[in-house]
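Before the break, one more example. Copy the sequence into your notebook; we will annotate it together after we see the structure.
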Amino acid sequence: MIRIGLVGVGFMGWIHFLAYKHLKDARLAAVCSRDKTKLAGDWRAIRGNFGPPGEMVDLTRIKKYERLDDLLADPEIDLVDVCNPTHMHPDTAIAALKAGKHVLVEKAIALKPEEADAMVAAAKAAGKLLMVAHVLPFFPEFRHAANAIKESRHGKLLAGHFKRVISRPDWSADIGDAAKTGGPAIDLHIHDTHFIGLVCGVPKGVFSTGVVENGVVQHLTTSYDYGPGGPSITCSSGALAMSGRPFVHGFELYLEKTTLVYESGSCPLTRIRPGLIETAPMPAEPGGDVAAFVAEIQAAVDGAASGKMPELLSGQLARDALVMCYKECESVISRKVVAMG
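Here is what the structure looks like once it is written out:
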């Protein structure tokens, strides 16, 4: 039984809490928050851009800590689930690793690549797992696409376009604060760079155009250079939509024998082949609205139990995704192709 210590009770902490109810061989053992109201079980102020709003929760059988050091000193905690704001991830994760805990940290891994490097190095030095909670590969549509590309079941990937659009994040002061999240080009777009890195690898370079407000990239469109033999990949991602525009993500992927199309809310995953257009069946999975998070956290639990890094939660993959975001922002500002290095 893996015993989890949750650090940070905001929107993502709430989503993870909901996912814990469906885990196998794991349980929430402790919660750490500086907010005494939340430690008392009143999570009704929590709001996000998907899933249910927060509510009253029963924490009577769960340890409650105001100080991180006290949670890390608890010998009954095996896995620390870091859900505090992104700018706090490096200090929290490194402290947990040094305390001998496995770590699952919400994306983005950090605000700066050098901080991500320090986290990866700390995990190696401690002999513990640093897992980063990038949930996109656990959505069934994206999992289907990743497996199709990896297994070449429809031939080689020739080209593709990814899309991720939200309204301006006015549901949370932290989410709207670029100093804490990096802004949409980091906090939002890193979902895409992580998935692109997973299925295509790190590109040779990037060229991006975008919309910049007060020095922060709010929207961008990027072309990824994989060389003459690589796929032609593009992505548009941003937070400029009016509040009436629902969250949308998806892709259109051109493989040698099949086109895969998916857009949340309007187009289920569809396979298009010569003379055949069919909707790909998606399996029913536990957790409802948070099913992908159940699968993601279960992978972290299984990793902590076995001591083996789950491929989809790799700290190095998350670090590379962060670097890609920064290279794209550099390209938006310079209006030049930027090499990945």
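The two ends are 42 Å apart (CA to CA). The chain has a mean pLDDT of 94. Try to locate both features in your own notes.
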